[in-house]
């Protein structure tokens, strides 16, 4: 008999991930702070729990996917949190993007109650969450990863065990450095192309299959030139991740020069009230500097 799985956090990423667990045939219990977000999943066959504690009492394996380190802390150890309902032998898998150091501390606390823990942050945007094609980077013990693998396989196309607890989060921060630096390149390139009088659709088609190609160019470039700022991942959440990168870089004593610059560019957009737009709106900071909009005519 398969283990019952719970999912806490039904935002841009979590809703799609939980839906894919349902599609794969798992018995799924869901909870979200805003209860209305659980309703579409309940309509598809999920069961709703009134609190993280209640969800934990009903599940063997629990996934969490919430916004920031304090949010995971609250879901785990706050009033009516998961820790109050988890049984010995349960497994918690955190798919949020949060502090590696806090992740290690949570795992140690839960181990005292014989609860296993994995950090399994994801990449691939809302599209990947909906399609079940996420890249998932997992930290924890190998046997625990194998226990979670059937659930991870339902949500992701690439599952990589990268090391002990905390390594998943560190790997995700590597991912976020690459994402934003890539998007800055896309932004500068599209503004340059527009200034040079190029057709932007043809420009993207010409370069995306070569050495300059990237996921951000292929997926977010067309959104930029179509004036489409719907978020696969919002600026506000991206900024939270960049804060985590810069904090970790400070702890490790390594430079993160371009990442810091991009964080400042995003800050200017947040001050303009654009924090809810997709992270590809980074281009607007470059457009402001250039006085040129990278939109297809």
Task: Give the topology, please.
Blueprint: E1 5-8, H1 14-23, E2 28-31, H2 39-43, E3 47-48, H3 52-58, E4 61-64, H4 69-77, E5 91-94, H5 100-111, E6 116-119, E7 122-123, H6 125-131, E8 134-139, H7 142-155, E9 156-163, H8 167-195, H9 200-207, H10 215-225, H11 235-252, H12 257-271, H13 283-290
Parallel strand pairs: 1-2, 1-4, 2-3, 4-5, 5-6, 8-9
Antiparallel strand pairs: 7-8
Helix pairs in contact: 1-6, 8-10, 8-11, 8-13, 11-12
Content-based structural category: alpha/beta
- Element string (H = helix, E = strand): EHEHEHEHEHEEHEHEHHHHHH
Number of helices: 13
Provide the gyration radius in Å. 20 Å
- Beta-strand level of the residues, as a percent range? 5-15%
The end-to-end span amounts to 57 Å
Corresponding CATH superfamily of the largest domain = NAD(P)-binding Rossmann-like Domain
Number of strands: 9
CATH architecture of the largest domain: 3-Layer(aba) Sandwich
GO molecular function, one term: NADP binding
Protein name: 3-hydroxyisobutyrate dehydrogenase
Domain 3-hydroxyisobutyrate dehydrogenase-like NAD-binding: 166-285
Domain 6-phosphogluconate dehydrogenase NADP-binding: 4-163
């Amino acid at each position: 008999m398969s283990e019952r799985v719970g999912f806490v956090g039904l935002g841009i990423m979590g809703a799609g991930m939980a839906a894919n667990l349902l599609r794969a045939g798992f018995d799924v219990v869901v909870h979200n702070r805003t209860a209305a977000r659980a309703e579409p999943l309940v309509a598809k066959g999920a069961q709703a729990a009134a609190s993280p504690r209640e969800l934990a009492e009903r599940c063997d394996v629990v996934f969490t996917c919430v916004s920031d380190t304090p949010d995971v802390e609250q879901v785990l150890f706050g009033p009516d949190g998961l820790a109050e309902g988890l049984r010995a032998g349960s497994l918690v898998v955190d798919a949020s993007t949060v502090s590696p150091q806090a992740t290690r501390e949570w795992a140690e606390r839960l181990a005292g109650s014989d609860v296993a823990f994995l950090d399994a942050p994801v990449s691939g945007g809302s599209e990947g969450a909906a399609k079940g094609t996420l890249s998932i980077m997992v930290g924890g013990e190998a046997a625990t990863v194998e226990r979670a693998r059937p659930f991870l396989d339902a949500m992701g196309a690439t599952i990589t065990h990268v090391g002990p607890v905390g390594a998943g989060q560190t790997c995700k921060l590597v991912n976020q450095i690459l994402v934003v630096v890539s998007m800055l390149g896309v932004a500068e390139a599209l503004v340059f192309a527009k200034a040079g009088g190029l057709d932007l659709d043809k420009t993207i088609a010409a370069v995306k299959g070569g050495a300059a190609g990237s996921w951000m160019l292929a997926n977010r470039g067309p959104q930029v030139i179509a004036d489409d700022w719907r978020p696969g991942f919002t600026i506000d959440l991206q900024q939270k991740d960049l804060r985590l990168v810069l904090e970790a870089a400070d702890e490790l004593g390594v430079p993160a020069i371009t990442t810091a610059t991009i964080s400042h560019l995003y800050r200017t957009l947040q001050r303009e009230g654009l924090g809810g737009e997709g992270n590809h709106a980074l281009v607007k900071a470059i457009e402001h500097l250039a006085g040129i909009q990278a939109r297809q005519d």
